[in-house]
Specification:
Elements: H1 2-28, H2 34-52, E1 95-98, E2 101-105, E3 111-113, H3 120-134, H4 137-144, E4 145-147, H5 160-165, E5 179-182, H6 203-216, E6 221-223, E7 230-231, E8 234-235, H7 240-254, E9 260-265, E10 273-276, E11 279-282, E12 284-289, E13 292-293, E14 296-297, H8 306-323, E15 331-334, E16 345-351, H9 358-363, H10 365-376
Parallel strand pairs: 4-15, 5-6, 5-9, 9-16, 12-15
Antiparallel strand pairs: 1-2, 2-3, 7-8, 10-11, 12-16, 13-14
């Protein structure tokens, strides 16, 4: 008799506070059809509590635990020692099971599924999938580009499907070069560069990239280290692009087998760094000139290869997003031409800023070589 009385008492003491809370919850609810649904939400914890047996078991009984909670096989969410389907709730909102799904109890009495936004590579892949599915110009511009105020990225310049599917592969020939790397602004340096040391400038990146493309991926590469932004021993970038164009055209005449031109730069601004393969790595940004301002095309900057240029940078950007969360910044679009009209497969790439270190910039060449090899090799 005494054991039975103790159980009734514990049942009464457990039920009374719950009924008070239930009444208060119902009073606070909005009127309408949602009341029954919310009532079910409120009743579910009671069911879980009752089913666990803790309110009818003796505290000192074989299956009970002092302080409440089920044994190791209880399997009920909200217990400190839940089984396979349980979850610890100390320090966070309690979780209860509704229809087999974990729900989160919020302060206003509602319960919602805990849905975390996608981040990193998962978010990248979702963007790429949506781009391929819709092939929509607006989605492309909003999610993969930064458009400078000096230009207008009009829809006719971005035939999305064609940019995505254009074949950019090239062959390999050990007897002649396929790739040219140069630096219009070869004197650009980094935060820890030593004055007067060329290999502490963007030239160091070109040296690393040329070696990787040659030794690892089998391309024949020419690395032009000419300082086109130095005239008579003084820094002068006003004529750098004209000087670089003249020098590049000479190399193209000498080596007509060249199919790819890569102009490596260093940007300005705050430091841009991420982690790739466990190394501190400068973020890169592909850069396209559209040869037009807000009023339309600039006739003297005509680029017959604009569509090919755009396809090249976009496919490289998408390939990088498949492997690394934030190795690449959005592609930057500006109004001029930047010597990208010399070949269909011409690239201008900004690597980090003056706040990055030489090693961070050089580390960025390994992933760059990888995506170049995949796009140029026609790898799906």
């Amino acid at each position: 008799m005494r054991q039975s009385y103790r159980r009734r008492g514990r049942w009464q003491y457990g039920l009374l506070p719950f009924l008070l809370l239930l009444a208060l919850g119902i009073l606070m609810m909005n009127r309408g059809a949602g009341v029954l649904r919310r009532l079910a939400y409120l009743l579910d914890p009671l069911y879980t509590y009752a089913a666990s047996g803790s309110w009818i078991s003796d505290q000192s009984g074989e299956n009970g635990k002092a302080g409440g909670g089920r044994g190791e096989n209880s399997g009920y969410p909200g217990t400190a020692e839940g089984g396979e389907n349980g979850s610890k709730t100390a320090g966070g909102p309690a979780s209860v099971s509704l229809n087999g799904q974990v729900q989160i109890v919020y302060g206003d009495g509602y319960m919602e599924e805990s849905v975390k936004p996608k981040t990193g590579i998962e978010a990248n892949l979702e963007k790429i999938e949506q781009l391929w599915a819709g092939k929509d110009y607006a989605y492309l511009i909003q999610n993969f580009y930064i458009v400078n105020s000096s230009t207008y990225a009009s829809e006719e310049l971005f035939p999305v499907e064609e940019l995505l599917t254009m074949d950019l592969s090239i062959g390999k020939d050990a007897a002649q070069p396929q790739i040219l790397i140069h630096h219009t602004h070869a004197s650009e340096a980094f935060s820890d560069s030593r004055a007067g040391v060329q290999e502490d400038t963007v030239v160091a990146m070109g040296t690393k990239l040329a070696r990787l493309l040659s030794e690892t991926y089998g391309y024949q590469v020419i690395h032009d280290k000419t300082t086109y932004d130095m005239i008579d021993g003084k820094l002068d970038r006003n004529r750098a692009y004209d000087n670089a164009k003249e020098g590049t055209q000479k190399l193209l005449s000498e080596y007509p087998s060249i199919q790819v031109i890569i102009d490596l730069h260093r940007d300005s601004g705050a430091k841009r760094v991420t982690t790739v393969n466990g190394k501190d790595t400068a973020q890169i940004m592909f850069f396209n000139g559209l040869s037009r301002n807000m009023n339309g095309p600039i006739s003297y900057l005509y680029n017959p290869y604009l569509k090919e240029n755009l396809a090249f940078s976009l496919q490289l950007k998408l390939k990088a997003m498949e492997y690394w969360a934030d190795y690449t910044k959005p592609i930057f679009l500006k109004g001029y031409e930047y010597n990208l009209s010399l070949l269909p497969k011409s690239l201008l790439i900004e690597v980090g800023t003056q706040e990055n270190t030489v090693s961070e910039a050089v580390n960025a060449m390994e992933p760059l070589a990888q995506i170049l090899a995949e796009v140029l090799g026609g790898t799906e």
